Amino acid sequence: MFSAVESRRLYRQVADQIRSMIATGELAVGQRLPPERELAEKLAVSRPTIREALIVLEVEGLVHIRMGSGIYVARKHTVQPAQPEREPFEGPFELLQARSIIECAIAEEAAQRATSSHIAVLDENLQQMASVVNDTDAALEIDRAFHTAIAGIVGNAALIRFTGEIYDQRMTPYFEKLASHFEGPDSWSRAMEEHRAIRDAIAANDPAAAKQAMRTHLDRSQKRFSESFGEELFGEDEGGRAAARRNAKI
Amino acid sequence: MFSAVESRRLYRQVADQIRSMIATGELAVGQRLPPERELAEKLAVSRPTIREALIVLEVEGLVHIRMGSGIYVARKHTVQPAQPEREPFEGPFELLQARSIIECAIAEEAAQRATSSHIAVLDENLQQMASVVNDTDAALEIDRAFHTAIAGIVGNAALIRFTGEIYDQRMTPYFEKLASHFEGPDSWSRAMEEHRAIRDAIAANDPAAAKQAMRTHLDRSQKRFSESFGEELFGEDEGGRAAARRNAKI
DNA sequence: ATGGATGAATTGGTCAGGCCACTTGGCCAA
DNA sequence: TTGGCCAAGTGGCCTGACCAATTCATCCAT
């Protein structure tokens, strides 16, 4: 019937096997793997198959292949399953708290460096936002642009990238559904006013005020978020729980 | 000599070539690529090389390989052109500046929340560092752990993850080579002393001092890096570095 | 002895050719 | 028309070999 399992290709199986060895720590970071020929013999497959599997792992960043030298387990600290109870899930509150800490610092820094051309970018963004408060999709884009634009004032590409990446992480399919319940013309208008306050503080080259305005903005975002459905769906503070566990661990 | 970069492997070049054909639309979405044997003939390489290149593209999600049928351009790449010239390669100085802004804010926050158990974690880390100043690989691990531990004091999983991810981004093969020239027992000892100053400020629940200590630490890291940076190897041609970049990207 | 050059062993990179399993589409028979 | 069947096309995998880069122990000159 539904044999269901598409017969996985051999090199995929080999890649999975090596991957799990790395995940469990059986192969330590920096350690050299056995030569391709030896791996082929041990796993009873041909060398081309081993090579294909290793190329998969290299593209994934798990191993580092050095010609003539060997294959080494790369430093990759994505998700360490060291935690018995898995909690790879960060709630919206936790993300907003992280954004608050990081983006406040960025706003503070931006206020010290902003020039008139930077402010012009923010003003244009505010205008755009005013025209799309009824279109949540468009508003999200512009909201994102506002936050990355502030990072852009600092003039550091890495910072811009981080800001964008953090922002994008709220967009899990899960939260997207939830967010659609509270994002509307009203909430976007209020967000825009908070954006304006941030813009003004940065334009005034007032770091402390910029930091405070950004904090207010993100705090209120969280409040808007939690008021709408946080209570009905999560009875408790999700972020706090995960946080407590983390503290004990690290 | 310092070839600086691994000479690009053939299957990588083939993958790049096909990738660019997809990017430019020369190969339309959904279109079937020529058979492996034909590609091998046209590109004047062997079929295993073609296969390896195609596996790279498959892992990247650009093509979809269907056994017995053919190789098809995946739909996914439609979202890709949003960032056509993605070369998010940021230099070590840019990354360190970003870390400075972000981690200073985290240290500030951590100083407000640290308890004795948090400090115990930092102390243990310092002890570990003292015992491995001669082992750069181990020292890197512990250095990383110190910075994520500070994020851990805040009790926010997202923050811990970001801190780790930013840290890991210096570990491209390119920087690794450069860093190996300046990381030694001496530099690790000095880093450890700076860590201790951060620990003390956090233990004293002094946010301003913690922020300052973290900034000093990262500034000096940058200084250590840049000093040996200039002396050692900077004579590489730009083309080679760009190639290394592209390689390291994945 | 010390330090640099050298060559053999190791290891990844590539090639050639072949066989097998799966997919596909058309042919043929019911 | 419908159903199964078959053969060509295609990817999956293997064997065996040679090339190129790296590594390391050895040897020679200082």
Question: How would you concisely characterize the structure shown here?
Answer:
Chains A, B: Pfam families: FCD (PF07729), GntR (PF00392). Chain A is built from eleven helices and two strands, in the order H-H-H-E-E-H-H-H-H-H-H-H-H. Chain A has helices spanning 10-23, 36-42, 47-59, 92-113, 116-131, 136-154, 157-168, 173-179, 185-203, 207-233, 238-249, and strands spanning 63-66, 70-73.
Task: Describe what you observe in this structure.
By secondary structure, the first copy, chain A, is mainly alpha-helical. Chain A folds into 2 domains: 10-73, Arc Repressor Mutant, subunit A; 92-249, Four Helix Bundle (Hemerythrin (Met), subunit A) (Up-down Bundle). Chain A has helices at residues 10-23, 36-42, 47-59, 92-113, 116-131, 136-154, 157-168, 173-179, 185-203, 207-233, 238-249, and strands at 63-66, 70-73. The first copy, chain A, has a two-stranded antiparallel ribbon. In chain A, α4 packs parallel to α9. The interface between A and B is large, with 49 and 51 residues. Chain B binds a DNA duplex (30 and 30 nucleotides) through residues 3, 6-7, 9-11, 35-37, 45-49, 51-52, 65-71.
Question: What would the CATH topology of the largest domain in chain A be?
Answer: Four Helix Bundle (Hemerythrin (Met), subunit A)
Question: What's the alpha carbon Rg of chain A, rounded to whole Å?
Answer: 24 Å
Q: Mind telling me which CATH architecture of the largest domain in chain A this is?
A: Up-down Bundle
List the total number of helices of chain A: 11
Structural class by helix and strand composition of chain A: mainly alpha
Largest interface: A-B, 49 and 51 residues
Task: Report the top-level CATH class of the largest domain in chain A.
Answer: Mainly Alpha
Q: Quick check: average pLDDT of chain A?
A: 75
The domain tally of chain A reads: 2
**How do the helices and strands follow one another from N- to C-terminus of chain A?**
HHHEEHHHHHHHH
Runs of chain A in which pLDDT lies below 50 for 5 or more consecutive residues are: 1-6, 77-89, 229-250
DSSP strand count of chain A: 2
User: What percentage of amino acids of chain A are in beta strands?
Assistant: under 5%
> How is the largest sheet of chain A built, in terms of strand order?
1-2
User: What oligomeric state best describes the polypeptide chains here?
Assistant: homodimer
- Tell me the span between the first and last alpha carbons of chain A: 48 Å
Shape of chain A: elongated
Largest sheet of chain A: 2 strands, antiparallel
InterPro entries (chains A, B): GntR_C, TF_FadR/GntR_C, Tscrpt_reg_HTH_GntR, WH-like_DNA-bd_sf, WH_DNA-bd_sf
Pfam families (chains A, B): FCD (PF07729), GntR (PF00392)
Protein name (chains A, B): DNA-binding transcriptional regulator, FadR family
Keywords (chains A, B): DNA-binding, Transcription, Transcription regulation
